[in-house]
Amino acid sequence: MKEILRYLSSAKFWKELFIMTLGMAIAAAGVYYFMIPSKLVLGSISGLSIVIANVLDAAGIPVKVSWVVMGINAILLLLAWLLIGKEFGAKTVYTAMILGPLIDMWERILPYEKLIEPGLSSVMGDPLLDLICFVLIISISQSVLFHINASTGGLDILAKIINKYLHFDIGVSVTVAGAVICCTAFAINPFRMVVTGLVGTWMNGLTLDYFTASLNKRKRVCIITKDYERIRKYIIEDLKRGCSLYRVTGGYSGEEHREIQVLLTQEEFSNVMNLIRNEDIQAFITAGNVSEVYGLWNEKKRPRRKWNKA
């Protein structure tokens, strides 16, 4: 109980609560202004619920779509709690609960009817433009939430499970889960609408991968220099990052050197480059982007230990 109270009073909790609320407000805006007026059908839990409700109704078992949505979300939230982790499940409960009220909030602030010009049936007036706007907005929301181990709920839960156990990129995971759901729409929708949903889901996966990679991007930096000890100390003591040292031999000169390899944020990489320039350190440097990092990088920074030379 004390740990829960400590977490609820921490800066991390309030920061993540703000990010989750902002991310869901963005998602709600995308749904309200682009999905609802144009009646877009994409691979989502809402779309699957519509299919199930219509199939059951045709079979003589009338059921409200809202009930199906609640039932599916309840099952998925339980799976998230068991298969992904308590933190992801708890955050997703919150995001799933506030989506509806946030959609109502946008309706009260600025009804989409005021944005639709006379003679048009949607905000953009073109289903393709509505689709592009919706995918762009929802992908930004998803990438922000995934970055703090949360989601918009529904389809994101399936994507996160696929990502964790099949090790697909998160964008590919969204595409796979959404495509399967889109195909169920053949039971109630014409071919054109199903294809529209598949295209939108595919675009969502690509866009989500782009934004996720941008948020998680790190630099893998390799530095070969005689002054490696100065740079190593700066990385360890000032940046509080770990690094690896390798013995390398020049192919042309035959001289032996030390190479430093380290993963840095863009800001940290800039700081290292400034150090090298300001202190006129002669070095050969290569750097490449890394979109995913696992292991010790994500752990809390440990107390600095003294460096023991061999």
Describe what you observe in this structure.
With 310 residues, this protein is α+β, with helices and mostly antiparallel strands. It has two domains: 2-215, no CATH class; 217-298, Alpha-Beta Plaits, CATH 3.30.70.120. The chain is 61% helix and 10% strand. It has eleven helices and four strands, in the order αααααααααβαββαβ. It has a four-stranded antiparallel beta sheet with strand order 2-3-1-4. α4 runs antiparallel to α5 (86-109). The longest helix is centred in the middle third of the chain and has 26 residues, at 191-216. It is elongated, with a radius of gyration of 25 Å. Mean pLDDT is 76; it is low at 299-310.
User: What does the average pLDDT come to?
Assistant: 76
Domain module count: 2
The total count of strands amounts to: 4
The first-to-last residue Cα distance is 46 Å
Tell me the Rg in angstroms: 25 Å
Instruction: Please count the helical segments.
Output: 11
- Helix fraction bin: 55-70%
Strand content: 5-15%
| Dominant shape | elongated
What is the succession of H and E elements? HHHHHHHHHEHEEHE
Biggest sheet strand order reads: 2-3-1-4
How can the largest sheet be summarized? 4 strands, antiparallel
Low-confidence stretches are 299-310
The assigned structural class equals: alpha+beta
